[in-house]
User: Fold this.
Amino acid sequence: MAKKTEILLETGTNELEILEFHIDEQTPAGPVPCHFGVNVAKVMQVIESPRLTHPESATHASFLGVIPLRDHILPVIDLAVWLGLDKAAHDQEVVIVTEFSQAVTGFLVSGVTEIHRVGWPEVIPPSKALGRVDTASIVGLVEREGRFIQLLDLEYILADLDPACSTRAWSTSAHAEARYSALVADDSATIRTMLQNNLEAAGFEVLMANNGSEAMDKLQEVKNAAHDSGKPVTDFLDVLISDIEMPLMDGFTLTKSVKNDPVLKTLPVILYSSIITDELRHKGESVGADAQVAKPDLDQMARTAITLISGAGVAGS
Assistant:
């Protein structure tokens, strides 16, 4: 399966494409499929299972080893083991090869179902009612034909497998000369924590939103406060920092809404994503983003924000 990027070329649609796959959980009544999804833009291809076995020296029970794949040495993770599911093994298992945050990783699953195009408003918050999987690894649910597809937070999974990456992501030597404030929108608790640590270490006051819709509500409060006081919005908030992929309202739509608002448009906006590439940066530019940062460079977020706020120019774009 070739990597899909078509949806990323359509600015402000508030949509994404997800690859649905399943892990067949063994139960007393027989195998029961658990349905999951990932953003198609993060998928390089799907390959047959190399039938690896867990090496005794591995630091994590889900690690199956590595295989060569074109120009990459591909680590393969048994996703069922990481999720804590008792997988019913069969001969038709596949590996979903993903590429994001400058990392190429393979995830062993029972099989691939189909690709769905969904609007972010269709993505509902994860529910503990499903019970089988820790909701910390799920960013949202999509209902299709009577079943729930659980959207996985792949960044959370990789951070768990390599805890040192979290430390690298928030460390910064930047420091703001004034007490700046930032609103951060991200559906991943892992990334929110990384960014909060990064920004607070640089002297920022940080507000958090779980998605673009919640961020827009907070921005409306800022707008109202600015109106009531007769002051500019930047007296109340210095910068908006937003992930691109989020339930209810994505970062592109959020940015477009801000930049089309006659009051909020002066607010600097930084977009970030694990799937930002040179070819796709024009999407953020087309909706008015002032800077764009790839998730492997989150340690530069505070420095980028300070540069924008201080008027020294656009950084990180």
Notes: The longest strand covers residues 15-27.
